[in-house]
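task queued by scheduler; priority normal; single chain, no ligands, no partner chains; default sampling; output format set to structure tokens
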Amino acid sequence: MHGRPAGTVMTVAFELDGQAFIALYGGPMLKFNEAISFQINCETQEEVDYYWEKLSEGGYGKAQQCGWLKDRYGVSW
């Protein structure tokens, strides 16, 4: 049905810091978009600055403002 070789991974379930995720292979016809973004809850400004620096490195400069950024892979945070 999906045209992929037998044994090809189509979905992956994983957990990050207690949050469950499921990733689905959508094939080349489903392009990545901004329908989802990730959020990191921080306790201090220093923690915000740390993640901002790491995630924005190599990212899209025009999309890095007002507490929102797009990383080098095009993922919104």
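post-processing summary
- The chain has a mean pLDDT of 83.
- The two ends are 34 Å apart (CA to CA).
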